[in-house]
Amino acid sequence: MNRVDFTRKISWLMVQMGMEGEKPIEDYCKRSDEEQYRLYQIGREFDNNGNVIKEDKNKTVTNCDGKKNVSAHQRGRAKDILFISADGKRVVAPKRGYDYWHRRWERMGGKPAIKWDQAHFEG
Fold it and tell me: How sure is the predictor about 116, in pLDDT bands with cuts at 50, 70 and 90?
């Protein structure tokens, strides 16, 4: 799916979410190389040459370093969607569940869910 198709389809998905009583918000859309690398560093320790020497899989947030392994967010073909409470003060689970919205997204041509990153929708 190209970037324009992704933008059109993910926007329509978010409209559908709202029509079904959800309150979706965009978290991460397009990321810079620097922001992607900053996220890649979370949960990892590096030596002086930039090689990973220790990794805590429970704390890492991405496997894409933004340089050798480019994220779909950097290409504008991924978006993280969170859901907020009715009062808008906290992030909550979607009423219908992430599995429901990912199945809908896949029927629209999107990629399958990443089990450890439910908020991630990719085209």
Answer: confident
